[in-house]
Amino acid sequence: MKDTIFGPCGARIGSDLRVDTLERMVPPAKPPKGDSPSPDRHPSSPTGPTRPTGPPKWKALRRELLQDCSVFTVSREHSESPRTGEVHEFHRIDSADWVNIVAVTPGDELVMITQYRHGSQEIELEIPGGLIDPGESPAAAAARELLEETGYRAASVEPIGTVNPNPALFGNRVHSFVAWNVQSVADVQNTPAEETVVQLVSRASLRERLLAGEIRHALVVAALYWFELTHPRAGASQ
């Protein structure tokens, strides 16, 4: 099979690569180190993840790397239908796992950030988060992102849930954490490609902010839902 292969977001890097070579170029996501819950597992569950039942899985036959965009890759996968035996073409996005963190001050305020997002082309209200660096654990990544993006330090972090960003396209996971009694200890450490502004948000106002559409990032909403599920606020209305 002849396929043109592209480098960083469109730069052509070759063609006629063997399927096994391409699969080595796009390795499956590796499970994180042991300080984060298993995929789809609530951290308090003693029995592990419960997967839904349904139709049999498709069989992935081969995968071709189309673009390497630095923080993620785009691939084409050919998979066989278990019902008809026909082979169909799908596209997928792979990346290192991500983290985000719900950081709570002693005054019961969430340390959130506002930043410009190039997808929505809007200023968005979010919680700190980002990519897990090679060799880094999810917990360490969450604490690092909190310090870099806000200047707040977490003495410890607690896993609250793990999700897939969108199972139709993505192969990675997002690990959510909570940190209590965080303290401001440093200046924000933004890279040249980002600018975050810290905003302290009362936990009591989260429901109204969500309903008003102030928080629009789906993975942030998921993390806040995990937070409320695992640590419901005393006296909060349902």
Provide the descriptors you would attach to this structure in a database record.
four-stranded mixed β-sheet; Nucleoside Triphosphate Pyrophosphohydrolase; 2 domains; 238 residues; disordered N terminus; three-stranded antiparallel β-sheet
Explain the overall architecture.
The protein has two domains: 4-33 and 59-94, no CATH class; 98-230, Nucleoside Triphosphate Pyrophosphohydrolase. The chain has helices at residues 19-25, 138-150, 206-211, 218-230, and strands at 4-6, 12-15, 59-68, 73-80, 87-94, 98-104, 109-117, 122-126, 129-131, 152-153, 158-163, 174-180, 183-184, 197-202. Strand 4 and strand 5 form a beta hairpin. Strands 9-6-12-11 form a four-stranded mixed sheet. Strands 3-4-5 form a three-stranded antiparallel sheet. With 238 residues, it is of the alpha+beta class.
